[in-house]
Amino acid sequence: MSESIKIEKVREVSVLVEGGKATPGPPLGPALGPLGIPIGKVVAEINKLTQQYQGMKVPVRIRVNIETKEYSIEVGSPPTSALILRELGAEKGSSAAGHDFIGNLSMEQVVKIAKMKAEALGRKNVKAIAKEVLGTCVSIGVLVEGKHPKEVIREVSEGKWDNLFGKG
């Protein structure tokens, strides 16, 4: 009595690429070449999926079924702090967060970042993620609406900004 069990052979490749600027060269080409999938097509898909993160390093995971050559691409999200700094046009956070502030975000910008993170994380509660973004603003020295982010977190909890969050 012999049962055949089919075991899928899947290889996973994880790389960091610059948003919208992946190339068939290293690190992708050498990692994907031996797997026999169309590298140009994969690179084009990665660039399309990472376009919104131009100028930032983005984690990307490619899973390849060795037998069928089918593949899937999963794009992560840059750190929240990197998204905030990009939104401000700043290079780094404050060395004395809480005392020195490097910039000021609007609540609309906070929600924009929260929606990016929600999409990347597969989460729907933009209001909760906005609070996480505000927490990151505290740690890197960024004001929001001209106020300390802790004050804005309180306002979010009280419902002051609910009109910006949409459903969820």
Strand sequence of the main sheet, in spatial order? Answer: 1-2-3
CATH topology value of the largest domain: Arc Repressor Mutant, subunit A
Q: How many H/I helical runs?
A: 7
Largest sheet: 3 strands, antiparallel
Average residue-wise pLDDT: 89
Count of discrete domains: 2
CATH superfamily of the largest domain: Ribosomal protein L11/L12, C-terminal domain
The span between the termini is 54 Å
Low-pLDDT runs: none
Determine and state the CATH class of the largest domain. Answer: Mainly Alpha
The computed structural class is: alpha+beta
* Shape type: elongated
Order of helices and strands: EHHEEHEHHEHH
Rg over CA atoms, rounded to whole Å, is 20 Å
Q: Count every beta strand, where a strand is a DSSP E run of 2 or more residues.
A: 5
Percent of residues in helices comes to 40-55%
What fraction of residues sit in β-strands? 15-25%
- Under the CATH scheme, which architecture of the largest domain would be assigned? Orthogonal Bundle
Supply database-style keywords:
single chain; 168 residues; alpha+beta; Ribosomal protein L11, N-terminal domain; Arc Repressor Mutant, subunit A; 2 domains; three-stranded antiparallel β-sheet; two-stranded parallel ribbon; 7 helices; elongated
List the helices and strands and how they pair.
Layout: E1 10-18, H1 28-32, H2 39-50, E2 57-65, E3 71-75, H3 80-88, E4 103-105, H4 107-121, H5 126-140, E5 142-144, H6 149-158, H7 162-165
Parallel strand pairs: 4-5
Antiparallel strand pairs: 1-2, 2-3
